[in-house]
Structure formats: C-alpha cells, structure tokens
Amino acid sequence: MRMRLSLAGVLLIVLCCSWHPLKMSYTAVKYEPERRCLEVSFRVFQDDVEAAFLRNYGYRCNIVQQAEDPELLSYLQGYFDQVFDLWAGGEEICLDYLRMQPEQQMGLVLYFKSTPLTPQQLSRLQIYNAILVTTFPQQVNMFFLGLDADRRYTTQMDVEVQQVSINFEQ
C-alpha cells in the first residue's frame, strides 16, 4: 500500500510538469464484476504519444484537438494493440478503445475495455507492455493490476523488461 501511494505521488508530480525528462506511463487494469470485463487505463503524456505516432507512422497530430477524428482513433487503437497485450490462460484478451480524458497540462488518460471474462479466467495472466519504449528507450511503464481485494499486482516495465507472468492459482 505504501509503495502504491509513493508511486502515485511520483506519477502525479511527473504528470503535472510540462517539461518531463523522465519518460513514464502508468497502466491500471481493473476487473469490473458488474460488467464482467477488464477496464484498462493508460496514463501517458500527450506529446510522447504524438512523438510515437510521428516516428512510427509518420502521422502528425494533436490528440486532444482531434479526439473525435476517426483516423486518430484508428491510430490510437492500432498503437495500443501493438504495444500492450494481455493474455488469460494463454488466450489473448481483446481491448476496445472507450474514451480519452485530458488531464493537467500534457497528461492523458486513455480508457479501453475487454470482452466479457469470468474471474476464473483471470487466474493466470501474461502482460506485455512496451508503451513508448521504441520512441524513448529510457521509458518506464508502471503497471497495476487489481482483480479483487486478494488479487493485486504492481510492477515496473521498461525497454529491457516488457513482459511478466502472474499466477494467482498458488
């Protein structure tokens, strides 16, 4: 709990600064039992994602101003499909883009949701998180998973560690 609060404090400071030499994202995956799906939120810097789109696709944009543009939404869906994956019991979990929420200065929160899943399907998970690491080799991606009160997991990923496996069966 203390680590999570410290992590949240550092992230808040970083996201409130318009100049950010530290490259960081925060991904939270939470199980929504009433909808039987995972909600995935990515907290990223707007200019970092725009730089990744320009570098990877040659696509220049202003994400907030173009938030409803179908072309931009296609790039968002495609990019996060490429750099972030979840598997449950060996099967890939499909994520669909929901919405974007601009935060203070350059921070963005992008929301995705999964197809319906049961809690039992989520006992063994694999996570791949390479958000922004090809654009910024110093990128750090913090990751939080919260399925219920007993099944929680937090880790840090980067250019060298992009995949983790979690087993709640033990």
Report the biggest beta sheet as strand number plus sense, adding barrel if it closes: 6 strands, mixed
Q: Look at the structure and give the mean pLDDT.
A: 88
Helix content: 10-25%
Query: What's the Cα radius of gyration?
Result: 16 Å
Q: What order do the strands of the largest sheet run in, or round the barrel if closed?
A: 5-6-2-1-8-9
Order of helices and strands: HEEHHEEEEEEEE
- Tell me the number of helical segments per DSSP (H or I, 4 or more residues long): 3
Distance between the termini: 21 Å
Say how many strands there are. Answer: 10
Strand content: 35-45%
The low-confidence runs, each spanning 5 or more residues with pLDDT under 50, are: 10-18
Shape, principal axes of CA atoms: globular
Which structural class do the helices and strands define? alpha+beta
Give structural notes:
The chain has 170 residues and is α+β, with helices and mostly antiparallel strands. Helix content is 24%, strand content 39%. The chain is built from 3 helices and 10 strands, in the order αββααββββββββ. The protein has helices at 2-16, 46-57, 70-83, and strands spanning 24-32, 37-45, 84-88, 91-92, 95-102, 107-114, 124-129, 140-146, 152-158, 163-167. The chain has a 6-stranded mixed beta sheet with strand order 5-6-2-1-8-9, sandwiched between helices. A 4-stranded antiparallel beta sheet has the order 4-3-7-10. The relative contact order is 0.21.
